Amino acid sequence: MLDMTPVKVAERKALRINPCKTCQPVGAMYCALGVRSCMPHSHGSQGCCSYHRTVLSRHFKEPAIASSSSFTEGASVFGGRSNVSTAVKNVFDIYAPDIIAIHTTCLSETIGDDVKSYIMDMEIPEGKQVVHCNTPSYVGSHINGFSNMMMGFMDYLIDPADGSAAGKTALFPGWVNPGDVREIKRIAGLMGAECICFPDHSGVLDAPMTGKYELYPDGGTTLPEIRALGGCSQLIALGEITSAPPAQLLTKKWHVPEVLLPTPVGVAFTDRYILALRQCTKREVPRALEEQRGQLVDLMLDAHAYTSGKTAAIFGDPDIVIGMTSLCLEMGLVPKYVITGTPREEFGVKVNALFDAYHVTGCRAKANADLFELHQWIKNEPVDLLIGSTYGKQIAKAEDIPFVRVGFPVLDRYGGTLLPVVGYVGGIRMAEKITDALMDRRDRDAADEDLEIVM
Amino acid sequence: MDKREKVLERYAARVYKNRKEHLVQIEEGEHPSIAANTRAIPGVMTARGCCYAGCKGVVVGPLKDVCVITHGPIGCGFYSWGTRRNKAKPAEEGGKNFVPYCFSTDMQEPDIVFGGEKKLELAVAEAVEIFAPSCIMICSTCPIGLIGDDVQAVARRAEAKYGIKAIGYSCEGYKGVSQSAGHHIANNGLMRYVIGTGDTAPKTKYSVNILGEYNIGGDGWEEERILKRCGVEVISIFTGDGSVEAIQNAHLAHLNLVMCHRSINYIAEMMKTKYGIDWLKVNFVGVGATCQSLREMAAYFGDEALKARVEAVVADELAAISGDIEYYRSKLTGKVAGIFSGGSRSHHYQALLRDFGVRTVVAGYEFAHRDDYEGRDIIPSIKEDADNKNIETIAVQPDETHYRERYSPEELCGLKEHIELDNYEGMMPDMSAGDVVVDDYNHFETDALLKSVKPDMFFSGIKDKYSIQKAGFTSRQIHSYDYSGPYAGFNGAVNFGRDVTMTLYTNAWGLVVPPWKSAPMLVGTIGGE
Question: Does A21 sit within 8 Å of B74, measured CB to CB?
Answer without folding.
Answer: yes
